[in-house]
Fold this protein.
Amino acid sequence: MSSFINIGKVEFQKIGSFKLILLIIISALITFGLSLSFILYKKEYLLSEGLMEIQSIISISAYFATFTLAIFSAINWYYLISFENKNGTWSILLTKPISKFKLLMTKHTLHLVMYIAFNILYTTASFILLIIMNIEFNISEFLKLQFIFFLVAITIPYSQLLFHLMVKNGLLAFSLTIIILFFFLIKDIIPDIFAMFIPLLNVDNVWIDIKNTRIITLYCIESILYGVIIFLISIKNNYYTYE
Amino acid sequence: MEAIITLSNVSKSFQLQQVVKNLSLTIPKGSLYGFLGPNGAGKTTTMRILVGLIEADEGEILFKGKNIKKWRKSLFNHVGCFIDSPSYYPNLTAYENLAYIQKITDKPLAEVDRVLNVTGIYYAKDKKVKNFSMGMKQRLGLAFAMLNDPDILILDEPTNGLDPEGIHEIRNFLINLCKNEGKTIFVSSHNLAEIEMMADYIALINQGKLIYDGKLEDVLISEEYIVKVKQSEEVIQMLTNSGLDVTRLKDNKFSFKADQYKMAVINKKMAEKNIDVYELTPRKRTLEEIFLNLTKTDNPLKKEVGLYE
């Protein structure tokens, strides 16, 4: 366990801890800024439609968070996975007495730590947003909604990882972030029956059935399974073996 | 001859192209083994298979008698390698690059200073690697390979991109490691003169197939002799009468092909006839000459030195 933490710390230092912290802060700030601007711009409409309440505000900020999260994840995986490929350093790592599983597990854990850090800041930003907009809310409901976002939004970084594994080029994979964004933009023209089976869209779908605990639970399980499957693919993938 | 690594009938294909074909090699312990072949011959693929970066489709690789598939992790406690161009983290210093590997493998950091000293880049240990010259990067690559004192170094073109002085230094460094510290070094290179100056053994591959492996000195010595005598016409006549094909050279010298037994008979005859012999030397071929001949598809040298068809 201590060596696992040690590898994580060294990995964090290698990428640049300052750079990573800055990335998390900027992503959360952009989400906050975009959400606030949109709500202020559409304030009259939201008020007239009775949408100035916690679920609507959280779903708006979650919508913007998907965009920033896609970019955040692309940069994150670039540093964790593709950066090694760019520098040819897989050949060093994989020819040293360290298990490939342990090494990749550390990278995934580090990504998860950053994802949690992003979510903490994003939750704080959403909290501030609700306060600014003078919306009454129940703290436990707020935390529940944020936790649902945390679980279903995991499909975004893991979809991004899939691009990195498929195209084997960090910069190209980064630019493919546009595919994630494209999916969100075309969501409205896809029949709901199809959209609900695309895990990447769970983060957006989830707000439609937010009252239905059973469906929400299914979305959460599906998202976690999706992440686990891509994690397992990344462990087995030949990307790291120069095939 | 104790083998440190043995490859038996190793083959590897990428899609439809077979890159390595039934390759069998034995790398003796404590040897400096040169691995030669033209571009695309399968050298780097073989080296990648050796260090487990890719898996062979067929065949077996033994390290000290143990299969590397089963003993991968313990193997890397004894093997240091440098495959392709030197790899490093450009934004870290030389020290941080090496320390990173030590930390993730739970190995002592004191080793970092040792390898930086041995490879001669200690003075630049706090300099970011992106600012290193090509020579310094090659040395850092060697330092990565040498971490934790491995028994064998597998080096793919370690002198690529170096100036003559750098090549000379790396060559001497490798010879010293092999002769004085007993390390086994398996090195590929395009620089044939460099391999000729340092290797004990060589393996030549072309289009994925082994065409020669064995002691370097055995392949360099040809069964051709150069002779300079006072009574040259008399000797040439004698040799021609014996059915030998004699080639006249400048300075009253001539050459002919003969095996060592035939040469002993000729020598005896010359002594009986009181011929004044000034020079009698087996002609030594250069590795370049051998390499160029062997990598031609139709070459007479293959039969001459007992090469694999």
In short: Chain A touches chain B at residues 3, 6-7, 10-11, 13-14, 16, 87-99, 103, 241-243 (CB under 8 Å).
